Protein 1
Amino acid sequence: ETGVTQTPRHLVMGMTNKKSLKCEQHLGHNAMYWYKQSAKKPLELMFVYNFKEQTENNSVPSRFSPECPNSSHLFLHLHTLQPEDSALYLCASSHEPPGQSNTEAFFGQGTRLTVV
Amino acid sequence: AQKVTQAQTEISVVEKEDVTLDCVYETRDTTYYLFWYKQPPSGELVFLIRRNSFDEQNEISGRYSWNFQKSTSSFNFTITASQVVDSAVYFCALRASNTGKLIFGQGTTLQVKP
């Protein structure tokens, strides 16, 4: 069982719907990430949280709204999405000691999102 | 700017063949980290290896080996005696020392046929 769990695994939503993706990590990590994986494109970093604080927003449209209530949970709230937002959304976590960034990230299995 | 290039989009081999996946990176940082991840059909990215920029020793782990060459900015991955279970998408990634951001290549889809 992976240490990073994402729910749901699959989601189909209309463009007017509001839904949320959930990520939970059981590894004691302090940093969590959202990545988007579209067909024929590299993985794109969307957001980074470190100790519950957002440290990076990679120019993501406001229709994606992240929330990190604690170091173990990360949400991605979705509203008024477009068909081009259909993709695999991957959550990851890592242990980030202050002043170091050499640790690997551990990924969940992703949520396959389809916007219709 | 930082960039990772995996020029091979898809590779198909027959079981027991050796296969090398290429990775070329660009960075202006003197300290950085390189990674390889495997993405099986189930979706999650599985960590395979991390290499620091100041450690150019090649590494072997079972059937897997990695060749890191700073002079050519390459971090290639070789699978010896490939197996059907090796079929997956493989990603090379780069991380600067002062950021948590992983820059991924576009991935190489490896198909190993029986």
Protein 2
Amino acid sequence: QLQLQESGPGLVKPSETLSLTCTVSGDSISSSSYYWGWIRQPPGKGLEWIGSIYYSGNTYYNPSLQSRVTISVDRSKNQFSLKLSSVTAADTAVYYCARHTRVSYCFDYWGQGILVTVSS
Amino acid sequence: QSALTQPASVSGSPGQSITISCTGTSSDVGGYNYVSWYQQHPGKAPKLMIYDVNNRPSGVSNRFSGSKSGNTASLTISGLQAEDEADYYCSSYTSGSTLEVFGGGTRLTVL
């Protein structure tokens, strides 16, 4: 059974860089059938796609976040990571990682999510 | 990249049917059959309910169905049950260097 698990600090200071990792178990991150994506949800608000990565390293980002986002993949650890720089309180959200199918462009498996608060 | 447009809320009584709309443009909903729908209960991760406009993943009740006309996709839930009360989000593939855009979400209340 495929499982995704987010990990990282739950508190980040303003202007610093938010760093999260998603560990994938039950499937290879090197599968040619999938991207691997990050989605966030501010408290009480809707979902926002942050970006997705293919195992080869090709990345796709939300234009509104592109200047601050970097997504990378570590095939040896079956993990992919998110870095969001110059964070503000507006970046406070639950961050989800998810498997993103290349055939149907949907997110079919999700992690449980991790709340990241931006505060001094 | 603008979010897809969904009604903020819909409601229905047990046993009734409801429909949630999701309006985009010819660059996303109208241009591709890659619309998906997600159900999210409070404090939980979203769950995929519909993909490719009208396909259900294994295990999803056949009370959930999807359709599309022009730039608007729709999710219909028939035979409403109390457990269907949740937030629902649509998403679509979008052309260009980006891949995905979500709708703003719709809160379903079962009266």
